[in-house]
Amino acid sequence: MAERPGSRHRSLYKLMGSPPWKEAFRQLEEPMDLAVLEEIQQELIDQEQSIISEYEKSLQFDEQCLSVMLAEWEANPLICPVCTKYNLRVASGLVVCQCGLYIQSHACDTWAVIL
């Protein structure tokens, strides 16, 4: 095979490695990159902890609201307006009474838990 005219020069250049100024620049650049990456990682960790904390506060608030609603429901049960004898309850998306009354409910599932 015929060798290209510039390939010998190129092979010598490749054997020598990178110029010294490039190596010096890489050595300075790497710690800076690590510091930046560590800073970004710390910011992400802080952000994640903030989100988790906010989520936990939201859960506590929801639990408190549910407790209050359950306490009010237990204190004041809803009596059937038809028979005025039995309490209403929610089952499978229906508001039902023992007297036979049933009304389709489009309320969210949390009301089923409350009732």
Automatic annotation (TrEMBL):
InterPro entries: RIP (IPR028156), RPA_interact_C_dom (IPR028159), RPA_interact_central (IPR028155). GO terms for biological process: protein import into nucleus. Residues 22-69 form the RPA-interacting protein central domain. Keywords: Metal-binding, Zinc, Zinc-finger. Residues 79-106 form the RPA-interacting protein C-terminal domain. Pfam families: RPA_interact_C, RPA_interact_M. The keyword Metal-binding applies. GO terms for molecular function: zinc ion binding. GO terms for cellular component: PML body. PANTHER family: RPA-INTERACTING PROTEIN, RPA-INTERACTING PROTEIN RPAIN. This is RPA-interacting protein. It comes from Ovis ammon polii.
